[in-house]
Specification:
The complex is a heterodimer of chains A (115) and B (113). With 115 residues, chain A is mostly beta strands. In chain A, 0% of the residues lie in helices and 49% in strands. Chain A is built from no helices and 11 strands. In chain A, the strands form 2 sheets. In chain A, strands 2, 4, 5, 6, 9, 10 and 11 form a 7-stranded mixed sheet that branches. In chain A, strands 1-3-8-7 form a 4-stranded antiparallel sheet, with no helix packed on it. In chain B, the strands form 2 sheets. In chain B, strands 2, 4, 5, 9, 10 and 11 form a 6-stranded mixed sheet that branches. In chain B, strands 1-3-8-7-6 form a 5-stranded antiparallel sheet, with no helix packed on it. Chain B has 113 residues and is mainly beta. The chains are: A mainly beta (115), B mainly beta (113). Chains A and B meet through strand 4, strand 5, strand 9 and strand 10 of A and strand 4, strand 5, strand 9 and strand 10 of B.
Amino acid sequence: DTGVSQDPRHKITKRGQNVTFRCDPISEHNRLYWYRQTLGQGPEFLTYFQNEAQLEKSRLLSDRFSAERPKGSFSTLEIQRTEQGDSAMYLCASSFDRVVTGELFFGEGSRLTVL
Amino acid sequence: KNEVEQSPQNLTAQEGEFITINCSYSVGISALHWLQQHPGGGIVSLFMLSSGKKKHGRLIATINIQEKHSSLHITASHPRDSAVYICAVKKKGGGGSQGNLIFGKGTKLSVKP
């Protein structure tokens, strides 16, 4: 296992289309996080999973956004009816948390451009 | 005011210089992360700390919980250290705040040969 992988790395789409991003975390990691980063800004939290349970969602995650982690392994982030404001880098990270907060490992990100 | 503030926003240094990047936060935290982001987007975790000091190679991270402040130091800087350095904190508290990291906007470091 070489780390967290994200697919696709780049996606260009037209406004109104749906897009889906996939994240494969490090295999033994129980927590998986999604963040969004726009140019010149730090990442912003979107949502996170502990195993297959989605435990927290940011108010940034409008009803056009949905995330799943069906078997507690890989996760998908879908954006429906994309808008130009959705253009950003979507970052996935994973960690192994028990009693102590684990170190975060990030993927390379999926860059979305909405035309 | 952002809950996590970094300074400076941009930093240019000559190769070999000692570099300090600062992070101040206004909330109770359980952990603080220093992250490195290269052009193209990939983020690497450098340190996670909740007290004291950690060292890894030429990088040193310190945290003062009472003052709500952390610093990242780079000794003998090199052009390959050029990147954006991001401070992120994990808010203290149970329940819904477990997953929510709050990020600073980053410090863009450029080290000239």
